[in-house]
Amino acid sequence: MFTKTKTIDGVPETALKGSMRDFRVMEGADLLGRCDAFYNWQDNRRRSGTWPFSRATETGPASSCAVRDDSGNLTTGVNFASQDYLSLSSHPAVLAAAKAAIDEFGAHSAGSPALVGNTSTSVALERRLAQFLKMEEAILFPTGWAAGFGVLKGIIRSHDYIVMDALAHTCLQTGAQAATRNVVLFRHNDVEHCRERLKEIRRRDANAGVMVVTEGLFSMDSDTPDIGALQELAHEYGATLMVDVAHDLGCLGKDGTGHIGIQNMLGKVDLVMGSFSKTFGSNGGFVATRSRAVKEYLRFYSPSCTFSNALSPAQLATITKALDIVESAEGRDLRGKLMTNIVNLRARIRARGMDCYGDPSAIVAVKTGDEALARMTARALPEMGLISNLVEFPAVGKGLARFRLQVMAGHTDEEVTAAADRLHAAMRIAQARLDAGFDLMEERLAG
Q1: Hey, which end of the chain has fewer CB within 10 Å, N or C?
Q2: Does domain 44-79+329-446 have CATH number 3.30.2130.10?
Q3: Pair 27, 62: CB distance under 8 Å
Q4: Is 158 considered catalytic here?
Q5: Which residues of 103-138 are buried (b: 16+ CB within 10 A; e: fewer)?
Q6: pTM, whole model, 2 decimals?
Q7: How many angstroms separate the CA atoms of 240 and 230, rounded?
Q8: Predicted confidence band at 436 (pLDDT cuts at 50, 70, 90)?
Q9: Catalytic annotation present for 169
């Protein structure tokens, strides 16, 4: 489309083409030198203002804040790019708990959970999480990624099968690929297609272990599966269901138990895996199970648990205090404020002629489509005063680029309105600049 024009509004056509997938598989003997091709493409986008990644906040993930891009340019605006759904990362009680934990236990766990990295607070948090989810046991991991990777790599062996939703998180996909070559995808949230996959596996192999993998809330599309139907299907075919609740636990549902609670599946799912980094103000992850045997097996056979240091005392205190708030009347109030902001933002986006994916959640993914339009919009956002995350191929399908606005309970109504206004303005500016570039292209072709 851009073969006959050099630039559009000063942006080289090469900065509007290609994706990170182009550099995933590289060839040649020089392992380090092979990185140059990606860097050159990335730097072309960086210099043209179409590389909106790797930014750093100046003051933490406040609802409005300042950020620097990786060239050092400073932007101030409303912040809809941080994952702090209940605004607990700066809650005074959470901060006080973290500081007190450092005074009591020090700054570092100094050991693996399989050795002496645990503290009395980590043991207590595991019990609390199990109770919260109405499961028998829970085990902690150093990050949400480690939990997603580790539950698959820890349990699945090379002769087993994984049947996974096609849009499952990369930590789950990577864990599956590390565990077995027998990874089968089913169409997103399609229970009947999952059934076909399981039926075919059991036709070939009646005795292999099979794990069905899905998420409580998908972070790119803001939609959820029928968890009960998948659990019933897994049991019908002698399989185990694992649900990742990273984006809905704590922030959705009357009691904060996310879609598992909303769908009346508490205590009924075989395995529940989650992350603390979205709602609970800290790094860290967990796996909940109805079996002490499974917990102990993961502790010693999940490499991302066994061979990583345990969560620090400050992280444990942060998560525990955040869970206290989630389970309290204050937590219910915060979830109410969050949902009000979510509903209002979605309505204001649509009132301005834009659209968003999925159902109401803290993830409001605004449809953009064309990658060139998305990149030009991202270029305009700093001058508009909106901090948001561009998601493009291959994280989503080709031609399905979007801006993922992440909503916090602490956003004001004025900030919600500003986000809709500024994204709309940036998109209009971007489209006008692209249209002008297309007109120039036509003139050159005509000449």
Answers
A1: C
A2: no
A3: no
A4: no
A5: eebeeebeebbbeebbbebbeebbebbbebbbbebb
A6: 0.94
A7: 10
A8: confident
A9: no
